[in-house]
């Protein structure tokens, strides 16, 4: 019973950002590197984070654009349009 309580209490509840909200610096970094043609694995190695973390950062970045209904290149183009990629 104690083990169940510990494992249940350590789970974090995550809320997704609303579409149109501002991306974090890490999300911008991931999208910028994706725009350069790097794979998620390569982005992770460069930033010193797991590929799964890159997947999540990109997913959240996409979510900020039209509720996640865009793909990788659409996100890159939208970030450029907003002046978030140099």
How would you explain this protein's 3D organization?
The protein is an all-alpha fold. It has one domain: Winged helix-like DNA-binding domain superfamily/Winged helix DNA-binding domain (Arc Repressor Mutant, subunit A), CATH 1.10.10.10. Helix content is 59%, strand content 0%. The protein is built from five helices and no strands.
Furnish the topology, listing elements before pairings.
Layout: H1 2-9, H2 25-35, H3 40-47, H4 51-64, H5 72-81
Helix pairs in contact: 2-4, 2-5, 3-4
Quick tags:
86 residues, Arc Repressor Mutant, subunit A, 0% strand, disordered N terminus
Quick rundown:
By secondary structure, this protein is mainly alpha-helical. It has five helices and no strands.
Number of strands: 0
Overall CATH architecture: Orthogonal Bundle
Number of helical elements: 5
| Cα-based radius of gyration, to the nearest Å | 15 Å
What is the CATH superfamily classification?
A: Winged helix-like DNA-binding domain superfamily/Winged helix DNA-binding domain
What is the arithmetic mean of pLDDT? 81
Number of discrete domains: 1
Q: Give the termini distance in whole angstroms.
A: 53 Å
* Contiguous uncertain segments of 5+ residues: 1-7
CATH topology: Arc Repressor Mutant, subunit A
Shape: globular
Beta fraction = under 5%
SSE series: HHHHH
* Main sheet attributes: strand count, strand direction, barrel closure: none
Question: Approximately how much helix is present in the residues?
Answer: 55-70%
Secondary-structure-derived class: mainly alpha
CATH class label: Mainly Alpha
């Amino acid at each position: 019973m104690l083990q169940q309580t510990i494992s249940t209490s350590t789970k974090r509840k995550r809320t997704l950002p609303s579409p149109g909200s501002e991306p974090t610096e890490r999300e911008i970094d991931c999208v910028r590197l994706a725009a350069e043609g790097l794979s998620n694995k390569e982005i992770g190695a460069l930033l010193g984070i797991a590929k799964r973390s890159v997947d999540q950062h990109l997913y959240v970045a996409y979510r900020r654009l039209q509720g996640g209904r865009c793909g990788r290149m659409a996100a890159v183009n939208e970030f450029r349009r907003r002046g978030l990629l140099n």
